[in-house]
Specification:
The chain has helices at residues 2-60, 63-69, 71-74, 118-124; strands at residues 97-100, 133-141, 144-148, 156-159, 163-164. It is α+β, with helices and mostly antiparallel strands. Helix content is 42%, strand content 13%. The radius of gyration is 28 Å and the shape is rod-shaped. A hairpin with a 2-residue loop joins strand 2 (133-141) and strand 3 (144-148). It has a five-stranded antiparallel sheet with strand order 4-3-2-1-5.
Length: 182
């Protein structure tokens, strides 16, 4: 009778030990994956902040882009400006960085799919003055461009009317006087 009892309890004890070891291992894997995910989110947030910071730097260093960005608030007619726009007034170059600047209330990135984080929530909401970002154009067709951004996990489509060259030629035109010798 004792042998029968020992033979029946040994497998149950081994199964219980195996269950504990498996749950500890599963918890360790979950903890590792959570840390890796948090690192990835921090990296995406830093990349997206960099894309918006670079966009603002381009805008601040360009009178033309500054006029575009502040057009609605300052009631500036941007149709009179000569703007360098990829695929519209300048040649499109794939995998080149461009500025995405909305002059009307818009969401900068699609709501779904998007990364977790406050900056991604803000960029995916319709705002009166949307945040400008740097994007990379993958393709252009019929006034629409497919763009990549570090702020979005997948490419998305925007109008070419909202894309601008980072350096505008009109910022480098030096007016000359009729009395100039040059």
């Amino acid at each position: 009778m004792k042998n029968l009892l020992v033979n029946l309890t040994q497998p149950k004890i081994l199964l219980a030990i195996l269950g504990v070891v498996t749950s500890i291992a599963g918890f360790q894997i979950w903890q590792h994956n959570k840390k890796e995910y948090e690192k990835q989110v921090v990296k995406q947030i830093e990349g997206c902040r960099g894309a918006t910071k670079s966009a603002y730097q381009y805008i601040q260093s360009s009178k033309t882009l500054s006029s575009v960005y502040h057009a609605k608030r300052l009631d500036i007619d941007i149709s009179t400006l000569f703007l360098e726009k990829p695929g519209v007034t300048s040649p499109f170059k794939p995998d080149k960085n461009y500025l995405l600047i909305y002059t009307t209330p818009s969401a900068v990135i699609p709501d779904q799919p998007r990364y977790d984080g406050q900056i991604f929530n803000q960029l995916s909401r319709v705002e009166k003055s949307p945040i400008p970002i740097i994007v990379t154009i993958k393709s252009i067709d019929a006034g629409k461009a497919v763009v990549n951004s570090v702020c979005s996990p997948k490419p998305f489509t925007v109008s070419t009317e909202n894309l601008y060259e980072p350096q505008q030629k009109s910022d480098f035109v030096i007016p000359t006087s009729p009395f100039s010798m040059f």
